[in-house]
């Protein structure tokens, strides 16, 4: 009986980890984020650690959208530059209350940003 409980506990932990880890961002220190508005071409460079943390949290605390998606052009291209100079480009759609992100290499899989993180991103511009 004890082995069954241990197995169930381990399985629960693995399932929880799988549901909360989108693997959009590698677990590396971030040096800079370049945010480009695809509508008007405006580019913003984010280097402040607190602002970087807002984006890091937003892009790691996402929920995978079930099914295949087909959507319009992204609002922003978000490129994470890590301290080892690796780059990770991602796409972001953002409204006042909702958001979605996507890895351009996996363009049929989207991830919802939670409302709290959408508000946190908007707070950076206010």
From TrEMBL:
Keywords: Signal. The keyword Ribosomal protein does not apply. Residues 28-124 form the YhfM-like domain. Residues 1-17 form the signal peptide. PROSITE patterns: PROKAR_LIPOPROTEIN (PS51257). This is YhfM-like domain-containing protein.
